[in-house]
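Listing S7. Sequence submitted for prediction.
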Amino acid sequence: MKPSIGLKLPNRWTVGAVVIALIVVLPILSVFWLAAHPTENIWPHLLATTLPRYLANTGILMAGVGVLTAAIGTGSAWLVVMYDFPGKRWLQWALLMPLAVPAYVGAYALVDFLEYAGPVQTTMRGLFGWENARSYWFPEIRSRTAAILVLSAALYPYVYILARAAFREQSSAGYDVARALGVGPWGRFVRVGLPLARPAIAAGAIVAIMETVNDFGTVDYFAVQTLTTGIFSTWFQTRNVGGAAQIATLALVLIVICVLLERYSRRRSRFFQTARNTRPVVAHKLTGVWGAGVALACFLPFGFGFVLPVAVLLTHASDSHVWAEPGLLDAMWHTIFVGGAAAILTVLGALFMVYGVRLSQSRVPRLLMPVTSIGYAAPGAVLGLGILIPMATLDNAVADTVLAWTGYDPGLLITGTAGALVLTYFVRFFAIAQGASDAALGRVAPSLSMASRSLGRGAGDTLREVHLPLIRGTIGSALLLVFVDCVKELPATILLRGPFNYDTLATRVHEKASLENLTDAAPAALIICLVGLVAVALLARANR
């Protein structure tokens, strides 16, 4: 009698990859579900009152930051690649340093520097003898324009680093031909350099736009009502989950439309290198007034995005007593614990998933893996909402069941602890760890895995004994990058720490600065900037 042929069950790597992908995707699906099934449909009310203002402000911020970051990042990248000028050696790395300063920290510092009681206006009144604010005109600091400037100063390095790499990889042949035809520097930039670097510039600008939609601290401090602030106000003030989810869905749709429009605009653009051994671009030496002017142009973004906010923070943190304020040590420990746990779990999950997809014979994990990158595109407030409501429902159901069976109330196991924060960070920054893991494993020769398997090693042993020693540098960098992003994350942290007041450095800075107490906010802000500098150092090292 023939044995029955059973179904072939998927291995643990395939199952694990699918489970991890579902964990990342489910919060987004949860937001869509909540938006489609509100307990009280306030969408008509939102359309008639606040939503047009949220949408207009968000759209203007996206357009303004997108254009400004593209201009600053591309312009500075072009200058440091194409010209040799005084200070270039350190300025090309200094231009990355604003990434270490979260936009909301830059907003607090700018207001402190330019407000009525700040050093700028105080000096002006002393010099010109003005008695009060009615004696002179000064731009409104807490405004939409200021928000665009602050966000652009913090986010332009995303464009700069990609544009700089694109310009460096170009061949000098195209520029030599253009120069021989009498095309000047501006013409060479517009006709040769810019079209070739456009995909990189667009990618950086899209990241900056996504971070703009995600921002809460800057726009809240400048009193600019956006879709993100609308999520918070609808959820905290009216307790309407469905309305908040509907606004969150609109924010997601905006980001998706922006990405699709950019890809559609360059669908027929194709640029290729014509030879393998291309001649690199030779930087043209500038001296005198031109050299000084280019150096100043490159210093301004660095000065506004890094030097100014850090100088203001150092001034406020110069007194030793502010470092002993109650709550700072707890916030630091909470940040290290939550960020560290999230970074470890995220990188391990990404490594497991990428490795599992490579081993799997099924198409399902391969189709799901690209979808997991949507977490990075989703604003933190959106993910927080998509995780908080389902997890709170599950928590309450589990607690009620345990109480009914045992008489013991375990409380909220996820949303009542830091677990919800760790899960949100996992989903939000999974794309970073996944990209690093995929690139690292892709550099390992397949023959090494085949040799290991032929010697009787299993898939897990091969990963541990062959792959990990070869990719540990990249994995370590991914751990650090995810940790830094967790430290800076504000919207999701504010949304999820509410039930148990689990303060982190980011929430402490926001809370103190919102009360106009920048002195107590300065130590936590400086620690965040210091952690961010480590990530900048990694980026600089990787892009030498």
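Caption to Listing S7: primary sequence and predicted structure tokens for the chain studied. The chain has 24 helices and two strands. The beta strands are 83-84, 284-285.
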